[in-house]
Inverse folding.
């Protein structure tokens, strides 16, 4: 199992709506994430500047991304979420995921 952590930046003027959207993630989006191997997936938002920290566990991160990329629900979700983020240069939010290097883990 691989632990994956990544950072994105939510626009400060869109943070409240971003949180509202994630309080009601579509059931079909949640099912797609589960079905493609995303486990223990969490998002954490820093209120003062919009820093978003994502964490998930998966057996194969590349396969989990590819699986989501192949779903229609993910295409719809990414299109709706793109406007919330800074510095994506027109890419979908999930294309902006760059995993951080794990340097320590206490099991």
């Amino acid at each position: 199992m691989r632990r994956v952590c990544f950072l994105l930046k939510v626009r400060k003027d869109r943070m409240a709506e971003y949180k509202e959207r994630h309080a009601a993630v579509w059931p079909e989006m949640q099912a797609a994430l589960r079905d493609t191997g995303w486990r223990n997936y969490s998002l954490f938002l820093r209120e003062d500047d919009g820093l978003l920290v994502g964490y998930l566990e998966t057996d194969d991160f590349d396969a989990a991304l590819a699986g989501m990329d192949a779903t229609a629900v993910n295409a719809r979700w990414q299109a709706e979420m793109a406007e919330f983020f800074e510095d994506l240069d027109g890419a979908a939010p999930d294309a902006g995921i760059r995993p951080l290097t794990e340097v320590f883990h206490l099991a």
Summary: The chain has a mean pLDDT of 94. Strands lie at 2-9, 39-45, 51-58.
